[in-house]
Design goal:
312 residues; mainly alpha; MetI-like fold
Length: 312
């Protein structure tokens, strides 16, 4: 019978190492599969509600697609004719001009200045009064736009309007005689809450020691604001102006008050696109105008971002 030989312990083969799972490379430790399962539903929603509509808008913007008729069934490719027609359309020029005026006076000036004034005033009020004022301002912000529009129609009504009753001006048609001013004031009243909240947080970041030093050296309120407060909140001012400018530029709520009238005197770009694409049925032309509007939004955003970088 053959004798079995045994190797010394140092020469015996090492046991095979047990297979261990590879550690996850992501921060949460989920692994690629589980991470993809988590973000998958969100990506599907983004694709359905953002990516596909954007691509569809790009496509119909180069066609003569309409809501009804032959072009609704078999649209034809027209290239950049819709863009050329829009850039040469006086009605589009009027809508763009009204939009810029609307953004300048209701957002850049109105909401910015009123929001800062309210935030500055609230800092000196008693806590009870501050809460009351904040609640009233926030109420205008959280109420749905349709309800706010109905309230303003009741306020500005020619025959039974509250404003005419207060000013003793019976029969004054605010929405006919001063339509653009009416929607500017309406948008200031409705959107100031965001600026007030942002500036309240910004003012709270100003060092109290610097404010006290300015007071001790005899600086006026304007000097304190210019030399102490504003340098600390300059970034907040630019951020707030960027956000409210973009929101106001794309705001459709004035349509609920004036529908773009009278005689297109309040037909800002969002209303113009609606009247052209939905009411007029020219979906291809409306898509082209919406893309031009997107480019203008990007230019505005890049302008503010450049200002922020220069500040840094």
């Amino acid at each position: 019978m053959a004798q079995q030989t045994t190797l010394p312990p140092a020469e015996q083969p090492a046991p095979a190492a047990e297979a261990r799972p590879r550690p996850a490379t992501d921060v949460a430790g989920l692994g690629r599969g589980r991470a993809a399962a988590f973000v998958g539903p969100a990506m599907v929603l983004i694709a359905v509600f953002l990516v596909f509509p954007a691509l569809w808008t790009l496509y119909i913007g180069i066609t003569n697609y309409r809501l009804t008729g032959v072009q609704a069934r078999v649209p034809e490719i027209v290239g950049f004719d819709n863009y050329a027609d829009a850039l040469g359309d006086p009605t589009f020029h009027n809508a763009l001009f009204l939009t810029l005026v609307f953004v300048l006076f209701s957002a850049v000036l109105g909401q910015n200045l009123l929001g800062f004034a309210l935030a500055r005033s609230l800092a000196t009020l008693r806590p009870v009064l501050r809460r009351v004022v904040e609640s009233l301002v926030l109420l205008a912000w959280i109420i749905p736009g349709s309800i706010v529009a109905f309230l303003w129609l009741a306020l500005l009504d020619r025959d039974a309007g509250t404003l005419n009753a207060l000013l003793q001006t019976p029969g004054l048609a605010w929405l006919i005689d001063y339509p653009l001013v009416s929607i500017i004031v309406f948008n200031i009243w409705r959107g100031t809450a965001f600026s007030m909240l942002l500036y309240s947080a910004a003012l709270a970041s100003v060092p109290p020691s610097q404010l006290e030093t300015a007071r001790l050296v005899g600086a006026s309120r304007w000097q304190t604001l210019r030399d102490v407060v504003f340098p600390h909140i300059r970034g907040h001012v630019l951020t707030n102006t960027l956000l409210i400018s973009l929101w106001t530029f794309n705001d459709f709520t004035p349509f609920l008050i004036t529908a773009g009238g009278p005689n297109d005197r309040t037909e800002i770009l969002p209303v113009y696109i609606y009247n052209t694409a939905i009411s007029g049925g020219q979906m291809g032309y409306g898509a082209a105008v919406s893309l031009i509007m997107l480019v203008i939004n990007l230019i505005i955003a890049l302008f503010y971002i450049r200002l922020l970088r220069e500040r840094r």
